[in-house]
Design a protein that fits this description.
Bound molecules: carboxymethyl coenzyme *A
Radius of gyration: 23 Å
Helix content: 40-55%
Strand order of the largest sheet: 1-2-3
Largest sheet: 3 strands, antiparallel
Number of helices: 18
CATH architecture of the largest domain: Orthogonal Bundle
Length: 428
């Protein structure tokens, strides 16, 4: 028998259906609430609100489970290639060899960006944050492909936009870095795979060839997979809301980049390294910083700790912690901030403040340490997250369009002034 939720308001009982997901997740469907009762729900930060049904990513925060299209993140991070995972997220199943070969080949055909766009990069100040450049340049792509503006085009036309985005984002990201260095940009090389090509565009110089170290390329592949989707997070929800107005995919994804930039979301990976460096420069007194994080009068938070949905552990953090040990060992890197990170983690995990609030290291706590070992500068960390998250944003957008989702438009409880009459300026 299907479950029913009952709501009693002013002596009248209203019934709402209970929806059960494929992993037995429960939701009360309140889509008729306002028309039936005149009331709305209030849920700041959407802590209890499901904004959509989705078949892309399953996440159980209590048990630390993360699966893309049913496949456990641990297996994908161990065995898959990033573009294989991108295909899985976007098209719903793992590609066959023939499908994957075609998919990869098609993506390499679109890695160049329009030559006119190269001039944009030269116009940005050297100190420009690459996330700002990335958001702007992704939106700019839409101006070069005006035919992409209608989200309800035939599937192959939508696919072309998807290929272009996947192909061009690493080029845009590497060029944002080259801009900051005031170095000439490096063009994509289509004989390299996705991660190798990105590393080559980042580190190759006219003066010196860059040889991709397989340890580095494999570590990058793993990091991108771990970041590829995370159901209805802040940036994915942003992409869906922007896309729900039928704005084009380029600009919807650009909005996702802006949402990701903040330090409470993807920007945390840069903030973690800056925090660890600040602790080291301050003499390495971990307890002092733990106390700052616990002090409600201090705005400081322990970056890389806590998560809206994971309250026991973040499965991505478990994989990344091990990967960071392996990568540092393989590359022979001895990073002093790693010791601070480990000490901080031990102290926090044994502290009642963090234990009682379910605050554990998240994916970003160790990812910056790997990126540093790969020679990626801290301002580029969130850009790396964006490259990883792109397939997720695309998959979320595509599902939303295919489901013909209504425009995202929440309501509010108004708490401002009641009606009052305008007062002429000389009488105020
Ligand atoms: N340091 C100190 N206290 C914290 C922290 C932290 N990192 N995170 C949460 N708290 C406290 C918070 O002050 C609150 O305490 P109280 O109940 O006494 O008021 C309690 O824990 C619950 O916090 P919240 O802000 O209500 O939780 P939230 O679900 O709204 O926020 C979060 C989740 C990730 C924004 C938050 O934990 C945070 O700011 N963490 C640091 C930033 C960070 O690492 N973000 C990356 C998240 S993982 C990458 C991604 O997927 O985006």
């Amino acid at each position: 028998m299907s479950e029913i939720a009952k709501l009693e308001l002013n002596g009248k009982v209203y019934e709402f259906p209970v929806i059960t997901g494929s992993e037995n997740e429960k939701a009360i469907d309140i889509s008729t609430l306002r028309s039936a009762t005149g009331y709305i729900t209030l849920d700041p930060g959407f802590k209890n609100t499901g904004s959509t049904k989705s078949g892309i990513t399953f996440l159980n925060g209590e048990e630390g489970i993360l699966r893309y299209r049913g496949y456990p993140i641990e297996q994908l991070a161990e065995k898959a290639e990033f573009l294989e995972v991108a295909y899985l997220l976007i098209y719903g199943s793992l590609p066959t060899l023939a499908q994957y070969t075609k998919f990869k080949k098609t993506i390499t055909l679109h890695t160049l960006i329009h030559e006119d766009m190269r001039e944009f990069f030269e116009a940005y100040p050297a100190k420009a944050h690459p996330m700002g450049i990335l958001a702007a340049s992704l939106s700019s792509l839409s101006t070069f492909y005006p035919e992409s503006h209608d989200p309800y085009r035939p599937q192959e036309a939508v696919d072309l936009t998807i290929y272009r985005l996947l192909a061009k984002l690493p080029t845009l990201a590497a060029w944002a870095y080259k801009n900051a260095m005031r170095h000439p940009v490096v063009y994509p090389k289509n004989n390299l795979d996705y991660c190798e090509n990105f590393l080559n565009m980042m580190f190759s110089m006219p003066t010196e060839d860059y040889k991709v170290n397989p340890v580095v390329a494999q570590a990058l592949n793993k990091l991108l997979i771990l970041h590829a989707d995370h159901e209805q997070n802040c940036s994915a929800a942003t992409v869906r809301v922007v896309g729900s107005s039928q704005a084009n995919l380029y600009t919807s994804v650009a909005a996702g980049v802006s949402a990701l930039w903040g330090p409470l979301h993807g920007g945390a990976n840069q903030a973690v390294i800056e925090m660890l460096e600040a602790i080291r420069n301050d003499g390495g007194d971990v307890d002092k910083w733990i106390n700052k994080a616990k002090d409600k009068d201090d705005t400081f938070r322990l970056m890389g700790f806590g998560h809206r949905v994971y309250k026991n552990f973040d499965p991505r953090a478990t994989i990344i912690k091990k990967a960071s040990d392996d990568v540092l060992k393989a590359l022979g890197v001895n990073d002093p901030v790693l010791d601070i990170a480990k000490k901080l983690e031990t102290v926090a995990l044994n502290d009642d403040y963090f234990k009682s609030r379910g605050l554990y290291p998240n994916v970003d706590f160790y990812s910056g340490i790997i990126y540093r070992a790969l020679n990626i500068p801290s301002e580029m960390f969130t850009v790396m997250f964006a490259i990883g998250r792109l397939p997720g944003w695309i998959a979320q957008w595509k599902e939303m369009i295919e489901d013909k989702a209504p425009i995202g438009r929440p309501r509010q409880v108004y708490t401002g002034a009641t009606k009052r009459d305008f007062v002429d300026i000389d009488k105020r």
